[in-house]
Amino acid sequence: MNSKIVRETFLEYYEKNYHKRVKSSSLVPQDDSTLLFTNAGMVQFKNVFLGNEKREYKRACSSQKCVRAGGKHNDLENVGYTARHHTFFEMLGNFSFGDYFKKEAIHYAWDLVTDVYGLPKEKLWITIFKEDDEAFDIWHKQEGIDTSRIIRMGEKDNFWSMGDTGPCGPCSEIHIDQGKDVGCKRPECSIECDCDRFLEIWNLVFMQFNRSTDGKLTPLPKPSIDTGMGLERVSAILESVYSNFDTDLFVPIINDICNYFSVEYKHNESADVSLRVIADHLRAMDFLISDGVLPDKEGRGYVLRKIIRRAMRYGAKLGTKDPFLYKLVDSVNRSLGDIYPEIIQNEIFVKNTIKQEEEQFLTTLEEGLALFDKLVDKADNILDGQKAFKLYDTYGFPIDLTLDIAKEQNIFVDLEGFNKHLEMQRQRSKSTLSIGVDLKDTLGLALKDLKQTEFVGYDKFEEQGSLL
Ligand code: ATP
Ligand code: MG
Ligand code: MG
Ligand code: MG
To answer: Where do the Alanyl-transfer RNA synthetases family profile domain residues begin and end (predicted)?
Structure first.
């Protein structure tokens, strides 16, 4: 089964079960300043779950464009290093708005995974929220799963929230054991391990609450269902490969990057990380720009800028000194342009935007990289805060980029010092921008500073003569 069939099979299955097939919404959530990017299929239905909006249908299914590169769900630094995380990915999902609940949601998911996709039952594991006896009984009694395969987990993994506020609820997930040759390879590796062996494929969220800004949970008008399954992950399993990057969604893109750089994939781990990061980030930048995000000093645009600059750094590692990302946009468009025509429609604009951003950062990237080595205190392997700030302020290195380089060389970056200098600069300029580093979430952005951007199409921008 290739990814096109996997996607279509999912949507057809739910259509047959009376779900309305709904198109993916934009990566920029509409009228929702609490969220950086669309990070799950439920985002476009948030108001329906909350009871503030009615639709003609009570059941829906979709293949949703998602980005997880900032805010509560942030996988930016995982990308390249795990087999399963992307910044941009597609989430397959089915939704019930006060219609069916746990029993049906579990039954559909199990039926699709085992009977339709044909995954081997003996390799599948289930997690549930630790207090959810009802879900336990449904998996065991209704679907016949052995109790030893149903694992109770805590809030971190099995209580899903869209963001700090909004719809949320206990969840139950399907994982597949890919065998002891995959992942960390420790004999004691279990479903609780964070490695790639027990791969989480599908999350079924039993939407029951709305979380308000003070953290209080209020019951939703009606219990609802929201599920999410990563297309890249399930495609990997159905294509019998262990990494999303070995699926038909990535192989052609990685091949094109290899051709550009005259390197081969799977010959050298460090080069492989670069190839995976570039392939992933290319998809993210193409889709984000197509959905109206432009590189900027703050908010969503700053996340896009970080993604482009990170990809450029990995390009530099592969030896290029020239703009190259914009030349590889065609590769992503060949891969997904038939499903998401907006990337084809905006192709020229996307390429120009990326090229401009590459040209702007190339010289400083080169100088900053050369300087990095000199700035590090070799005796203690520390980059002090003022120096990290210099890389940021003078050379345009997002702090995550500095952290990324430092991680490779086991160098400690003094984030507290960095923040202090950032704050001092802010005071000096009395700037209201917030691109500081929250020590708890070094990649996060202050959401309160996000400008609400409503994308009106590039034609509009062009008419107004304000492209950037
Ligand atoms: P993980 O624990 O692997 O980081 P998650 O628990 O954060 O995943 P959920 O929020 O439950 O993920 O999202 C639902 C599904 O979306 C996951 O089960 C997975 O299949 C897919 N998914 C989540 N994050 C990513 C990602 N960064 N890249 C690709 N697929 C993802
Ligand atoms: Mg995650
Ligand atoms: Mg998880
Ligand atoms: Mg999950």
So the answer is: 1-468
Report the interhelical angle of 269-290 vs 347-375 (nearest 10°): 140
CA distances for 253 relative to 41, 265, 280, 327, angstroms: 25, 11, 9, 12
How large is the C-alpha radius of gyration of the chain?
Answer: 22
Return all residues near 13 (Cβ < 8 A) that are at least 6 apart.
Answer: 108, 112, 116
Q: What are phi and psi of 174, to 5 degrees?
A: -105, 130
Decide if 183 contacts 189 (C-beta within 8 A): yes
**Alpha-carbon distances of 9 from 238, 264, 338, rounded to whole Å:** 12, 33, 17
pTM for the model stands at 0.90
Whether residue 136 sits in one domain with residue 58: yes
- Of all protein residues, whose CA lies closest to atom 23 belonging to ligand 1? 230
Tally of domains within the chain: 3
Residues 4, 9: Cα–Cα separation, whole Å: 8
- Residues 58 and 84 reside in one and the same domain: yes
Residue 181 and residue 364: Cα distance in Å, rounded? 42
Q: ipTM value of the model?
A: 0.99
- 259 and 334 within one domain: yes
If you measure from the C-alpha of residue 160 to the centroid of ligand 3, how many angstroms do you get, rounded to a whole number?
9
Atom of ligand 1 nearest to the CA of 234: 20
Residue 176 CA, ligand 1 centroid: distance in Å: 14
> What band does 61 get if pLDDT is binned at 50, 70 and 90?
very high
Residues 211 and 286 in one domain: no
Residue 418's Cβ-side half-sphere holds a number of Cα atoms within 13 Å equal to 26
pLDDT at 163: 86
For the stretch 252-261, contacts whose Cβ atoms lie closer than 8 Å and that sit 24 or more positions apart, written own/partner, are 252/331, 252/334, 252/335, 253/279, 253/282, 253/283, 253/328, 253/331, 253/332, 253/335, 254/279, 256/328, 256/331, 257/282, 257/328, 257/331, 260/324, 260/327, 260/328, 261/318, 261/319, 261/320
- Cβ atoms of 343 and 336 within 8 Å: the answer is yes
Is the CB of residue 292 below 6 angstroms from any atom belonging to ligand 1? Answer: no
- Which ligand 1 atom sits closest to the C-alpha of 79? 27
> Residue 280 CA: which ligand is closest?
1
The CATH number for 55's domain is 3.30.930.10
Residue 457 domain flag? no
Checking if the pLDDT of 146 tops 50, the result is yes
CA of 228 to the centre of ligand 1 (A): 8
Q: Which ligand is nearest to the CA of 85?
A: 1
